[in-house]
Structure formats: structure tokens, C-alpha cells
Amino acid sequence: MRESLQKKKIRALKIFEILEREYPEAACHLTYENPFQLLISTLLAAQCTDDRVNETMVPLYKTYKTPADFLTLKPEELESKLRAINFYRNKTKSVLSCCRMLIDEHNSEVPRTMEELVKLAGVGRKTANVVLGNCFGVPAIMTDTHLMRVSKRLGLTSNKVPEKIEMDLKKIIPDDKQVKYSHIAGEHGRQICNARKPMCSECAVGSYCPGKGKA
What is the DSSP string of 63-93? Predict the structure, then answer.
């Protein structure tokens, strides 16, 4: 029998409450000091680990603090600094183009709306949501691979497309809990509900999971 939206909301809230207790310190894994740093690091984190991005970018941000600072680098210079990051050549182009747009269109400030953020080079909804949720307090579902996997297994969405998963979750997760849900679901995916061998016997939300033992 198909679960009604209201029942799914109730189940989602119970899952949220349990995971919040399990991972009270869950937060963004990227290291940043301001919206600009998080924007660039999130852009670079696509198909790359947060740890590798942090190892590369934390030292760079000590010298290159603003969009203008990054634009002092020639493409080949920035490429050499980003070499440890997957797809560094294409990402170098995106970073430099994004910095140019921030200067030309936003007075070097990171915009605070989805509509403006996704117009920046290399920025999609996921990156925009990470910045909006973590820096500006905007309700946001951050569709990383962990959140999507956990949410699908829990039956909170049946979609595979990140934007559709985001919209499904926004219907059942209250605005004031969306950022926290993104962090705790992501943490659960890293620690327990991993891709290849989910540890269902150790799962705190197993009783609310229609996918338990089926992965």
C-alpha cells in the first residue's frame, strides 16, 4: 500500500529525531571561514572527497582570500595547485569563471539566492544549497551521494535525480530541519548506511526503514 504524504511526514520526523540524537555534532565536512571559501570548495568537491578538497584548499585560502586573488593566477598556475583534485582542469576553468562573475556581477560578494547562485560558473543546485544552508540559514536539502542513498533506502523518495529527491524531501522535512537533516542523513550514510555493505543490524532507524536488509 502506498504511504500517504502525511504518514511519510510523520515517519520522516521520527527518523530525524533519532538521527539527530545519533549524530548531534553532524555538520559540513568542508572546512571554510566564509561563504566564498565554501562556494569554491563545494564546487571542487564534485566527484572528489571533502578531505582531499580540504587538504588542497585550506592552505590556498591563506594566500588567495578573494575572487580577485584567484584571478591573479594564470589558468596553468591554478591547475598546478588543484592537481590533486579530480577533474582539476575543468574545475580550474569553473573557479576562475566563477570568480570573474562574482566580481563583475556581485561586487565580489557571494549571492544569497538560489536563482543568482546557479547562474555562476560551475554552480548547480547542490552547491547552491550547501552555501545557502550553511552560510545564510536558508532552508536547504543538500543532495550529496550519502543523503540520496539514505533517503531512498528509507523510502522517503523513490527518485534518482538529485533535484527530484530534493523536492520530495522538501515536502516532508520541515523548513527549520532541512539543513540539519542533510547533515545527519549524510553522516548516517558515511558511518552506517554505506553503499556496498550497509550495517543494518546497527542502524538506529531500522524499524522505520522499508529497505532494511535489502541493499
Answer: T--SHHHHTTS-HHHHHHHSTTSTTHHHHHH
